[in-house]
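Hey, quick one: can you model this chain's 3D structure?
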Amino acid sequence: MSAAREHGSDTAPSRHRVRRYVRHNSLGLFFMATFLLAVADQDVAGRAEFNDELVADGLAPVSFAAYVTSSDFAVDVTENWQSEYLQFFLYIFCTVWLLQRGSPESKELGKAGTESDEEQMVGEHARSDSPRWAADKGWRGVVFSRSLGLVMGGIFLLSWLTQSVTGVAAYNEQQLRQLQAPTTWVNYLSSADFWNRTLQNWQSELLAIASMAVLAIYLRQRGSPESKPVGAPHSATDVEGG
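Sure thing. Here's the predicted structure for all 242 residues.
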């Protein structure tokens, strides 16, 4: 009996830690789970459409494994990834310098720019609980102070490069099915197919950023840090709810 009670006392704190971890990281866990679910659903729908095209061309359908490792699947995924990371990169970089009166997505109207070391808590103004590289006055501090934009921009460029490589492979597969000559990667970069895939994603992401920045001036979402407090005036800038 005592052993059972001891075992129960061990598992209770463990369950509490798990629940606390899930509660404190629920935003990231939710979006990662829905991302994986969306990718899985895309596998099913994309393979069905791809096989319909193959059958229409008189070819045999492919398995799930063959489809998810194909250039057709890869180009569909990466063309969306590169536009999303372009959105975040531009948003992070442009909000350093550009302002929007009344938007919680903007800094205060008089604070355009990289701000002072004191405001950013870097170098000699770093606190005891600041990240270690924030106090470094050399290259580490320079890189860390721009690390978010650098990583987002790097992922965008890598995704865009991958889109171009997988895109030309998918394009050439379609060309060969239609008994037409394939093209080179360099020529594909200036093709209508590549830029149509690219720009149709860019325009939607840029519209989403503009809509969020402007609509948040006049509309509210109670309890969201992406919105101003419900009672905040429309002209209030850099005021977030919580």
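One thing worth noting: The chain has a mean pLDDT of 89.
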